[in-house]
Amino acid sequence: MQPKQSIVNLPVYQPGKPIEEVKRELGLTEVIKLASNENPFGCSEHAKAAIQDELANISIYPDSFSTALTGAVADYLQVERNQLIFGAGSDEVILMLARAYLSPGDETIMADETFPQYKHNTVIEGGTAIEVPLKDGTHDLPAMLAKITDRTKIIWICNPNNPTGTINNEDELAHFVSQVPKNIIIALDEAYFEYVTNAEYPNSLELLRGHENIIILRTFSKVYGLASLRIGYGVAHSGLIRHVNQVREPFNTTRFAQAAAVASLADLDFLNNCRDRNEEGRRYLYQEFDRMGLSYFESQGNFVMFDAKLPSQQVFDGLLRRGIISRARWTYYPTYIRITVGSQEQNQSFIRALEEVLQEAAVLG
Ligand SMILES: Cc1ncc(COP(=O)(O)O)c(C=O)c1O
Fold first, then answer.
1. For ligand 1, is residue 90 a contact (CB within 6 Å)?
2. How far is the CA of 117 from the centre of ligand 1 (A)?
3. Positive or negative, the Cα torsion across 112, 116, 121, 126?
4. I need a surface site. Which of 115, 117, 197, 347 has the fewest CB within 10 A?
5. Tens-place pLDDT, residues 4-24
């Protein structure tokens, strides 16, 4: 049996190590996972109540059209209902976009390093991923424009970028969008949108109004804390959304995810609290990195990427032995670690562990 040619050399996705596995392997009782940019404060109590209510309907297929959620998000964003598509995480929206628009031989342009699913889904569809190195940790939009060819179908902009947390501002993005031919889709991945505190961050919904080739991707996995339920969405003009809908599986989002997402949207206190605590956490980490003389990218997400000045695998292993799961092994940043901003207690445990690791390796005195 031979699989399709495009996946022959495709790696299987390697998630951050699960907490239970690390406990078992290293004989630890306390393990803190700061590897996957999850919300350390859980989710809204209203979301939990909504899930409880839905339990009575567990044997009934979910609403294929996510009607209630579509209405809630449309009101929240002030867009039309037919401008929305929901997926099992924004991961699935990325997959559906690639499935709907890419044919073998097509190209998509993305940053390097950025979120790996853009490349993954491009390759699965038989396309070619054109990767453009980041400039100072940020998307190099002019260099990305220069890579456009007749075969370009999608340009992926991760804003804030995962793993660096950097943003492209309103002016840069608006200029970029004005230069991209209208037949090329611009996918603006805003998975960390709610954590952004920089006033120069683009108002992408405003940009969307004048451009039929933009799709904005958002998720309930991050600030809303619903990562395990798998629910994210895309916002675009109705024509584009219709094509993505054509390749959507009939029941791609669960009734628990839909109900929890509706309840979460209404809980602004939870969202604001998480955003504020994340901002405090980022500032604490910067202050500690400064104290240790380590450089880092200023992040607009719920994670920070810093230079540990040692091979990242060594730092990753040292942190792991101390019960901290981080992310390492970035192609262009071999000494950098990405760490999710945790609760204050988790952040302090991480900093203690990092100091020990660096002292052990004599990076710090
Ligand atoms: C930039 C970015 N986009 C999309 C996703 C996918 O999120 P989900 O599928 O949970 O919505 C992530 C998850 O880490 C991410 O970092």
1. yes
2. 9
3. positive
4. 197
5. 999 998 988 877 778 999 899
